[in-house]
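If you are new to this repository, start here. Below is one unmodified record pulled from the training split, so you can see the exact layout before writing a loader.
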Amino acid sequence: MSQHTPVLVGISHLEQRFTDFDTAKEPVQLMIEAVEKAAADAGSKALMKADSVRVIKGIWPYSDPARAVAQAIGCPNAETVLSPFGGNFVQTALNQSALDIQSGAHEVIVLTGAECGNTQAKAAKAEHNLDWAELPGTPDRLIGVEKDMRHDAERAIRLGRPIQIYPIMETALRYETGLGVDEHLQHISKLWAGFSNVAAGNPNAWLREAKSAEEIRTISGSNRPVSFPYPKLMNSNNNVDQAAALILVSEEKAKALGIPREKWIYPWAGADAQDHYYFSNRDNFHSSPAIRFAGGKCLELAGSTPDDIDMIDVYSCFPVAVQIACRELGFDMSRQLTVTGGLTFAGGPMNNYVMHSIVRMAQLLREQPGKRGMITANGGYITKHAFGIYSSEAPAQPFRHADMQDQVDATLKREVVMEYQGAGTVEGYSVMYGPEGLTKAFVGARLADGRRAWGTSTDTDLLQSMTEEEFCGRTVNIADQVATF
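And here is the target side for that same chain:
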């Protein structure tokens, strides 16, 4: 084992619930508080003398928030790092940080992030100006690259929001597995009820009242329809004020600082990969080669199989993300698939959710020495992926990491027809709701020559039928981007 073996020694989760805008803290203030709390968790204020501070990008106006955090915690000369948008980047940043500790490039690395979605929602409703700081400047380093994720064919029909695209994958997976419309709705609501039950026992969760499968799938005043088959309680809950922090050091540094051994959590292995960036180019809508290759490689590097993983947190922005990940990784859907309760119930602070899942995993691993935990992280439209395996037990070999992009890039990439006129077979679809009811359907079609085309419909009778019957596998006619059956 190298003397630079990386170990996670400080963790923190915090949330803000307020009634007065004058007392509400903005995200950077919560980040600072989270880092201070993580250092206190490890029992060493010396950990705030970090040589690298890394922030996960959020929905706030800051350009270089890590600089403000570094100055506030007493390490103004620390390297400052920022990620792009994407729910995968917490685990990606931790993977890179583990490598940086292992190589000796850094001794103490702080990762933090915060979102104030609840504050923003309340401010918008009250027409209140939050007047948050801008924190100008340029980070010393970026982890990851910001990329445009929308194909021109998707822009042409105004397809691009997660609530529009994830249901397309859900209906495609429903058809692939052979479930009926009602049977499938019961299946995913039962899955989500299991997540809700975990959140009820998670002291860090935003919503701790367990919901039944029937409550989750039933439309009500508090559970409005969003995009079929997802009502509100199957969507990520972004209206939370949450922050978290992680402190990573070398094993040697942890010993020198006297950090108790029972606080240590070792990252064993990590992996990253991205599916074809444009959703339209995917081979199909019900699988993820990136999860299969990168997640499988992460298990391999840790000398593990799914049966060896005692706890897992599968990224859970929508039910289909969990199902596809389990299918690709080989995890039994009947087991507990979250340690937090997921983004609907534990809270979905945009790109920073995975920091909270790592915090909760570390808490549980400290309580259960020797157990192994796996984190899966997802950004975009089941597009960008990162994985990590952790334990309180030291690994048999140094931290190992793999980038599996070459294998993903070698998979089939479908051509997209921009202005198609003719017939195709429905691969997946979503049906959107507005305040007055059904508004629009997006239909992805496979053409006879293997290419793909898109169509939409605003025919309310058709949209109603699409929520009651299976339309995947049917022949659709597309003309001027309008889909008819």
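Two things worth knowing about this chain: The chain is about 30% helix and 25% strand. The chain has a mean pLDDT of 97.
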